Amino acid sequence: MENIKPLGQKAYGSIPHLPGSRLGIGDHHVTEGQARIATDKPRDKHDVIIVQEKLDGSNCCVAKVNNKILALGRAGYLAKTSGYPIHQVFASWVKENEERFFALLAEGERVCGEFLAQAVGTKYCLQHEPFVAFDILKKTERLPYNIFEQRIKETDFVIPNLLHIGSSFPVADAIKAIQISGHGAIDEVEGAIWRVERKGKVDFLAKFVHHHKQDGKYFPETTGLETVWNCDVSRWLK
User: Which of 136, 143, 193, 198 suits 158 as a labelling partner, its CA being 20 to 30 A distant?
Assistant: First the structure.
């Protein structure tokens, strides 16, 4: 299992961008119709739009496979086999919180989120634990937000700051809503995530990223300096 993907796939895919969002290499936009639903006008009363603060850390996942809790990087490999210190820290943190993940996940499910222990493009003054969960999936199917939120809260994990839930939500309103971070961001919050649900199922996701964002701004490979940590990781970094 050391050199394979336990799920047989990536742990988490990419989210397409809304019009006007800053595109990175390999990124793409949602369709015009999807953008209109998310930010301007829903199709009908069955559309529910949830908008959350976008976080800037390392996308990581925790899966329950054969009744074992596995810490995974975004690509789907075991975090403990990664050469990056942040993934080693994540693997240790998951081990420390294994009982909570057992309580959260059913067999075959995975919880995906942002691990904020290391500063990537945004520094945080964290007032909560470093993992922020934003999805529970089984294969490609996401839990609807209300069930996801209930299960996450029952196990006392953290979820992204909720900016809006209801009808369509303009990008301009989201930008105003993220002027103050719900997670202690010291730098400018990089953007927001739209989650469009229809009749109790997740239809599509979209995101907006501001054009000032610098990917990996605090990486040692970029700065030539030491790793910047957003919290004390000494007990997890071995």
Answer: 198
